[in-house]
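Aim 2 progress update. The chain analyzed this quarter is reproduced below.
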Amino acid sequence: MSLKAQEEVQLQAADIRSLPAWKNLKESVIDLQQVQVEDGSVSDSANHARSNADIDNIISSIQQIQPHLPHDHEYLERVVQDFRKWQSAGLGVPDFLDSLLAFQPQQWRINGLPHLVVFPMYTQNGSTNRFVEAVLIDVIWPEFIDELESTRYSNKLFVPVHFWDFTPGYDTNSAVLFPESVAVRSTPKFTWGAIFADREAARFRRVLKAAAEITSLELPDDAAALIDDQTLCQETFVMWDLIHDRTHMRGDLPFDPFMIKQRMPFFLYSLEELRCDLTAFKESVLIERDETSSEEARRHAKLVQYAVIFDRIFRFAITGSRVRNYDALGGQLLFAWMHQHRVLHWTDGKLSIDWKDVAKVVVELALRVEELYWRSIDRPKTAHWLAAYDLISETLTPNPASVWAKGPDALPLDGPPKGLTDQVLDDEFPLSMFYEALEKKMRTVIESTAGITGEASAKFANEVAE
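Predicted structure tokens:
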């Protein structure tokens, strides 16, 4: 696409959210959701006339918006066809495979390029209902990210985006748009994954500001800039996500780090997510020190290090329930590791961090996890699980009621792995006294970030300032 064409699309996209067609599309989708059941179908025939009218309005609205999105022409044509086939089939379980295959946003990673996404789908971290949702987004793809992706961190599936508007399924904590969430008749090969970097950045900024005030943490000037600048912050999250996302399939791994369709202790998921974040941290340290990297890449590399630490220890650790919360466990582990290696201090009721020594200590944790993974292919599954538990419990104190904490002699090692998993408590590693107190003070702030966008964050900041 030429620069001139790109600018024309961007000028049109700036007004898409204000078009009557987008408003009508949202209203019709929301009304349709009221009569869909969990699998996406409209099971009550008494609601079919209402549903068909909503779908007719959805189709009409898509067709009115379509000229503003020439790069999505084929996809939007297929969406219309899939809606019509759904109507003809009697509004049973929807099948949008044809339109999903036509939607290829990874082929158009152009900064500011908009997309209209309409599918029956569930939203990660939100509802499991596979309702029709409509999302208006655009791509975040600054030049330094394009350079990093093309030269050092190839990730052809990665599509960072931000919200313009959305239907209720995305008024949640969900910050991803994945093709596997779409209702289809068969599972295709997935070719993209979208991350809402503006939502990640907006909630990070709000949480970090509150946490720093509550703990009396004095932020370095460049870290404080993340609170003040949404664009800077979301570009930092794009860089973090670029490296994190590709790491899931790179390195010395267990045969399958996620053990797809296998039940296993939640702390193993925690280590996998933490490994990817620590890899992003470690790589950012290298980029920051690499004089051949661009100035923008080096600047953002330093900011990624702040973002990984602060998001992990302030938001991850105290967000969500205490039921097998693997993201929280990763945050707890990083905080305790830094504290026990004496680069993080809680003294006289104030939190402080020795920034000159932090990188070395955090990279040491990354290397410990990497060694665990490297050893894994030479170990039986249960031995790997036990080694992973030992790594965590060296730093975090297990629940006093834990069977795992008593060691192998207390565990059912003579049976299937399921027996071991069943012995893991929902809250195997409870919050420390520090985190119990912090969670109470941060609870309303954490809750306020549900459904947040970059635009909403700026509005909130202005209201607070006034």
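Residues 1-11, 462-466 have pLDDT under 50 and may be disordered. The CA atoms of residues 162 and 233 lie 12 Å apart. These observations will guide the mutagenesis experiments scheduled for the next reporting period.
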